[in-house]
Prior knowledge:
Blueprint: H1 2-26, H2 34-38, H3 51-64
Amino acid sequence: MLRDGLRFARIVTLIALLLSFGLGMSFAQKVPAPQEVLGFPPGADYRLATYEQAVEYFKALEKSTRSSNCSRWARAKGGGR
């Protein structure tokens, strides 16, 4: 009878672990690599990301994950970005 109880506990534990692993995988997020957004790997010879490309990458990061947030903090004195 004790063996049946242990077997049941092991099965329940295994099911709980499998369910928690499966739920964790369903919430996994695809974070884009800089190369996917910029079109070239960062640090490549003779390639430098422009301001617009950097902003585009950070916006792609913001869309891909709930833990990042892009917001404007200030404007340049001369009315620029």
